[in-house]
Amino acid sequence: MTCKLQPKIIPYRIILEGSFSATTSLVPIITIEADINNLTTLLGDEELSKYIKAICDIRIDDTTNPTKATQLKNADISSNIISFDANLLETMYFDWRVPHTDILCETYIMVDTVQMSEDYNIEISDDYKNMKGEVERTYIIQGGEINSDLTIMDSREVAEADTGGGGGGSPSGEESDSGGGGEASPSSEESDSGGGGGGSPS
Amino acid sequence: MKKSNSHFSDLMITKDTSGNADFIFGVDMDRMMIDNSAYSALIENMTDTAKRQIALNSEILSFNINRRQVKKEKSLNSLGSPQNPEVFSDETISHPVLTSINDMNEVPIRVSGQSSGIRYLTASDTGLSKQTAGTYQYELSISTIDGFVPTIKKLLNRLYRTSNDVSTYLALLIAPENYDSNRRKSKISIKKSKTDEMSKTYVDAVSYFKNMDNISSEYKRASSLIASRGATKESIGEFQKRLNSVISKTEALIFKTGTGATPDGVANQPSNSSLPNSPIVEIKKSFNNTVSVECKDGKYVDYFQGKGKVGGGLNIFTSTEVKNKKPKTIYIDSSLTSLEMLESRGVTFNVYRSLDLASLKKSPIEDKTSSEKFIGLSAENIGGLLKDDLSIKDLSDASVADLVSINNINMAVSSITPKLSSVNNFQAPNDNITKVMPRITTPSTAITPQTMVLVAPKNSATKSSESMLMSPEWKPIEEIVDTKGAVVLCKQDDGSAEVANGYFLMEMK
Q1: Residues of B in contact with A169 (CB under 8 A)
Q2: Could you give all domains of chain A from N- to C-terminal order, each with its CATH number?
Q3: Could you tell me if B452 and B491 are in contact, meaning their C-beta atoms sit under 8 angstroms apart?
Q4: Cα B325 from chain centroid (whole Å)
Q5: Least CB-CB distance to A171: which of B200, B231, B240?
Q6: CB distance B160–A199 less than 8 Å?
Q7: Residues of B in contact with A146 (CB under 8 A)
Q8: Could you say which residues of chain A have pLDDT below 70?
Q9: What is the rounded average pLDDT of the residues B158-162?
Q10: Confidence bin at B160 (pLDDT 50/70/90)
Q11: B8/B469 Cα distance (integer angstroms)
Q12: How far apart are CA B505 and CA B508, in angstroms?
């Protein structure tokens, strides 16, 4: 039985990059930005910190090739913030155009006690091997839909229909009033002045 | 500019029991607006979403339907010889029937269980019943603003405004108190409706150039780049880059119009301006189908006795009413004058050239001029004052009775009218009245009356609107199954017999 660590890695933002287009060469990337909670001063120790790793396993189920996975490690946890950039093509075939049922990530802290024992020439019991914290499982895409409970920044290029037909909805196409309101607003313009905002931005 | 009449169906025209014309036609309004635009080549490369929007912005300036009395005549070839097809003479002036598209009712007709994308417009010509004779053709003329420039103008207005908003947004995040650089998070919150509107503007613009797989998910995706909840300076910058890209693409369209218009100039025009860069599109359509005021053989078949309205376009009946309909032949002899009644029964009066009755008894029959020459069935081969021909004066004002005093006619026929209860037992006098046997018509192939429903053409692989308009197909009503509440277009096919409300709408019950 392994020991459990207290620190947890909680994703606060996930960024999806790449493209839905067959003609683009954009690499499919999932970036996971996370807070590290409950990181004690002991784990933050300078000597010890190099043995503490933040781990992110990304698991992908798709309809044609279920359960593909990639593991990312990041040693720098000092700022209590961590970012994992997963270039999905490095470890698997991946295409955003393929319908994916589930994409999830599991994040946790692990102390590399095996390396530590080698470096310090000490023996540790099996109980202390692969010491890791609580695994936080986060669904990015669940049942084919982006998890709306998460802050997911979808920066993928426009999904273009294979055939014509104008897409699944009709944009209003007409000018609408600006929002504004009590919160900070980038514009005080409340209605269409017909002036067009003064020309093209540089 | 592509000119085509394939944007319209034939005019499906029928008469109600009062003799007014009810008609309906299908029009692919969107395609008509696009194909007739001065910028159709540019529009060709845009998406269906853009085309729809351009059609929506093609404001109708005028819409008229006129009626004109016509006669068919052979066209002449280069050698001056008559040839087919026949053409309509245009010797008479047009009379306005409808002067606004609001005078027409749009009917949500379903074809083969689905909406066809074609607009079906119906209306009535209640003035036709006031005409007493003749064949009439209907002409449609529409004048619209070319919707291309107004569409691009509106799009640029929205894009420029959003671009300004994004710039302001980024400027706000430069201040350290507004942005957490470590966690790359905004400390200020922009109203969600605002960022949604900005992303919508961007996606709507992109949808003019790219067919989107799922536009609502594109709204969400674009919004995720700028929503306060997770936006970073980098993601907002990415959004701005994409926005500028679509602005450039839209501006390029304005330059390509060759009108000398600039994006700024177009975008800064007031929304209610007369848009000097927007050409006016004039569309004219003369429908080939005509309607004759006279009822064929002096009768018509009415399947819906006592039902139906006057005016307002084709009548609509429920499927139950259609199922229970029964034909009743209505003879319109009652409206005939005594002379016409006799004529309709095959009795013609002869007008003598001389008033010398004594000599008439000796005159051979060839010396007489029969009224048959003027109004009889053989008249069309002779010329003169003919039922199916144009007269010197309007036939609505002239009749045989104009040529002979009604009193004289009534006096002349009063003695024999009682005997004419049936032409079969009528005994022709020996002298001045010649009995002419009713015309013997060639027995036609017996046609079982059938109610037909408009369906999508099965031979068209694409089922395009063009094939729907140009090659409409009809199926017997018994083969049609449609959802409750659906409205379909029907026609009553009784062969050559004239049917009142021959075209009608049926609501499925």
Answers
A1: 214-216
A2: 4-154 (2.60.40.10)
A3: yes
A4: 27
A5: B200
A6: yes
A7: 220
A8: 1-5, 41-44, 62-66, 159-202
A9: 95
A10: very high
A11: 6
A12: 10
Structure tokens at A76: 């720098």
- The sheet carrying B503-507 orders its strands as B316-318, B503-507, B487-493, B450-455, B473-476
The total of other beta-carbon atoms located within 10 Å of residue B226's CB is 30
Q: How many CB atoms lie within 10 A of CB B353?
A: 11
Residue B474 · residue B456 · CB < 8 Å:
no
Number of residue pairs across A and B with CB atoms under 8 Å?
188
Q: Is the ipTM of this complex over 0.90?
A: no
Cβ neighbours of A181 in B, within 8 Å: 191, 193-194
Angular region, B229: left φ>0, alpha ψ -120 to 50, beta rest:
alpha
Contacts of B377 by beta carbon, 8 Å cutoff, 6+ apart: B439
Query: Which residues on neighbouring strands pair with residue B8, listed in sequence order?
Result: B27
**Half-sphere exposure in the Cβ direction for B44 (13 Å, CA):** 9
Q: A184–B182: do the CB atoms touch at under 8 Å?
A: no
- Alpha-carbon distance of A194 to B165, in angstroms, equals 16
Beta strands in B213-323, from DSSP E residues, in sequence order: 280-292, 299-302, 316-318
The answer to whether the beta carbons of residues B233 and B179 sit under 8 Å apart is: yes
Write the CA distances from A72 to A4, A31, A96, A141, B420, integer angstroms: 20, 11, 20, 19, 108
Output the CA torsion B24→B27→B33→B35 (10° steps): -140
Query: Which chain A residue lies closest to B51 (C-alpha atoms)?
Result: A166
Look up the pTM and report it: 0.67
- How many helices (H) and strands (E) would you count in chain B? 15, 25
Nearest to A158 among B200, B206, B238 (CB): B206
Residue B197 φ then ψ, to 5°: -65, -40
CA B52 from centroid of its chain's CA atoms? 20
Query: Whole-angstrom Cα distance, residue B147 to residue B16?
Result: 38
Quick one: pLDDT at residue B277? 64
Helix boundaries (H) for B61-191? 148-174
The confidence band for B437, taking pLDDT boundaries of 50, 70 and 90, is: very low
Q: Does A188 touch chain B (CB under 8 A)?
A: no
Cβ atoms B354, B366 nearer than 8 A: no
b/e map B244-262, b = 16+ CB within 10 Å: bebbeebbebbeebebebe
Give, as one character, the DSSP assignment of residue B84. Answer: E
CA angle, B100 then B105 then B110, to 5° = 140
Return mean pLDDT, chain B.
78
A47 vs A5, A39, A114, A120, A123, CA distance in Å? Answer: 18, 15, 15, 12, 18
Q: Are B387 and B124 in contact (CB under 8 A)?
A: no
Q: What number of residues does chain B have?
A: 509
Verify whether the Cβ–Cβ distance A181 to B169 is below 8 Å: no
Put residue B375 in one of left, alpha, beta given phi > 0 → left and psi -120 to 50 → alpha. Answer: alpha
CB within 8 Å of B343: residues ≥ 6 apart: B371, B375, B376
With CB atoms and an 8 Å threshold, state whether B212 touches A161: yes
